[in-house]
Amino acid sequence: MQVSEHKVVVLKYEVIDEQDQLVDRSEDDGPLAYIHGNGQLIPGLENALEGREQGDKLSIDVPPDQGYGERDEDGIQTVSRSQFDDSVQIEAGMQFEAQDDEGHQIVTVVGVEGDKITLDTNHPLAGKTLHFKVEIIEVRDATPEELDHNHVHGPGGHHHH
Ligand code: ZN
Fold this sequence. Notes:
Elements: E1 7-16, E2 22-25, E3 32-35, H1 43-49, E4 57-62, E5 76-80, E6 95-100, E7 103-113, E8 116-120, E9 130-141, H2 144-149
Antiparallel strand pairs: 1-2, 1-3, 1-9, 4-9, 5-8, 6-7, 7-8
The structure holds zinc ion.
The site of zinc ion (ZN) has 5 residues, from loops.
């Protein structure tokens, strides 16, 4: 079965940046499962998987415009310490998730100076060309329930409690 719209695709992957640093990999929490064609992956990865089959191994270079976008220097913002809970220790290098209109984004603390905290709201991988090594573990039809929920159920997917 080929990867096409509304198939569930189960992947193992490894991501390496331009400096040959391992950025992310699937092994730690098992394969990734997603519904193809719904924009759940970055476009460069999703497009490269189209038409591929179970067992295929791919090596894909994804430029920023097909990945996490270019860096936006307006994404650097300075906020007051008082916007954070007193109990939270804020240090440069920390990352946390913030909610915005499009869901969630990853925010990185780039500096702390007195009462001023400088944040970078760019995705940590913005502006980078990423090299993906992908192995397709399984391709199957999504169930009507999975399509309704817009996520995969079971291993590598969503677990309802
Ligand atoms: Zn669900």
